[in-house]
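Quick start: read one record
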Amino acid sequence: MAYKGKRGKQQHPLSRIADRQKLFWSKVNKGSQLECWNWTASTKSGYGVFWDGKRRISAHRYSLELHLGKPIPGDLWVLHVCGNRRCVNPAHLYLGDAKDNAVDRDRHLIQDMMGVDRQL
């Protein structure tokens, strides 16, 4: 079903914010607040990707934007406490810069090498 925009032109159904959010969450395997909420759709380099109607965006970034209620500035990275690239649980996500991302990546790499279970 197409929707009418401001000028009476038909718009893609995903142009409505509520529809995009509903579609997004339908692609997430939610668990408890402590568990990872894994993205079940398209991925790139292990990270979930989502088309929000205007742009292709990392699923974890989109999840945190929904949680915060505003776009995240382009100079900030969305990092995972859990180290699970598919996780979109906002409780497992935090903002950082490029240096924070490198430190986080190295920490998770070391944990992987040591066989540490990072599931929260």
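The longest helix spans residues 98-114.
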